[in-house]
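Next comes a single protein record:
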Amino acid sequence: MIEQKGTGPLDMVTHSFSRIAMWAPFFIVLIILYEVVMRYFFAAATLWVNEMSLWIAGGIYLSAGLYAMLQRSHIRIFIIYDMVPLWLRRVFDILSTICVGIFAFAVIWGGFGESKAKFLRWETFGTAFDPPIPATNKPLILTVMFFLALQATSNLVRDWPATPWVRKLFDIIVSTIIIAFASLAAYNLYIVPPEGQTVPLKWQIGIGIFLAGAVALVIYGLIRDFDKTPIPISEMDEIEEEAELMKEQVDIPDEILTGTPPKPKA
C-alpha cells in the first residue's frame, strides 16, 4: 500500500500525530529489553515497564485506527460494492459515513460522564507504579472517536471528489470546530477549572502542548491546502495495484501483466 498524506487541516492533524505514534512501538521494545536485562542479568526487576507498555500500547491501538481511516485501509467488504454502478457506490459511501458518525456519537455520549470524572480526579491504575491510565486513555478514546467521525466525513468529501467550494467550506468548518474545542479545553483546564480537578501541573503543560500543536497543524493545513485539489484515492484490487506499480517501473506489455502473453509468431 502506498501511503497517502492527504490534504487539508484534518488530514494534516491525523497524519502528523500518527507519524509520531509510529515510533511508540520502538519505545516499547526498548523498555521491555531493559526489563529483561535488569531482571535476568542483575536480578533487579522494574515496577514500571509492564504498566508503561500497556499504557503506550493503548494509545497506539487508538491512533492506528485513525491512521487506517486516513489511508482508507480499514477492512471493507467489496462483494456487492464492486458490482453496483457509481451512483449506488456513493450511496453506500454516505451510509457508511453516517454509520461511523452514529457509532462515534454513541460512544462519546455514553462515555463522556465517566471519562470526565476519571480525568478530573486524575484516576490512576492502582499498582505499584500507579500510572494515570484511566485518567488519560479514557478521554483519549472519546477524542479519537471524534476525530474518526470527522476523518470519515473528510474522506467522503475528498474521494468523490467534491466541488472546490464544498471542500473549502468543509475545511473551514472542521478547522473552526477543532480550534473551538481546543480553546474550550484550555479554558476549563487553565482559566476556570472545574471543582475537584486534580490534574498535575506537568500533565497540564503536556496537554497544553498537545492542544497548541493540534491548533497549529489545523491552521497550517488550512492555509497550505486551501487551493489544492485533492486527488481521490481509488479503490483497486491489490493485484491491479501491483500491476500498475510494475508498469510504472518497467515498460511491460499489458498482455504479460494480465497473464495472457501473445502467441509466438510462426
